[in-house]
Amino acid sequence: MKIDTKLVGSNYAVIDILGKTIIIGTIKTNNEILNLENSQAGVYFITIGDNLKQTFKIIKK
User: Could you tell me which residues are beta bridge partners of residue 47?
Assistant: First the structure.
């Protein structure tokens, strides 16, 4: 996932379709790799940052 370099060092959360947070962490590079290997197929949302927030929608098949 490629993000704005201003968000490096920001916290992120991966949230499932029911609103449950399944992964949290800190962005270390602007090409961060998130491992959803152990997650079930479905729709997930990734929110990054606090002030300059970006949200991504991911569909895992």
Answer: 13, 55
One digit per residue, the tens of pLDDT, for the chain of length 61 reads 667 788 888 999 999 999 999 999 998 988 888 888 889 999 999 998 877 778 889 999 8
Which structural domain range is residue 20 located in? 5-60
Q: 12 near 36, Cβ under 8 Å?
A: no
In sequence order, the 6+-apart residues with CB closer than 8 A to the CB of 19 are none
Q: SS3 of 10, please? A: coil
Report the number of distinct structural domains present in the chain.
1
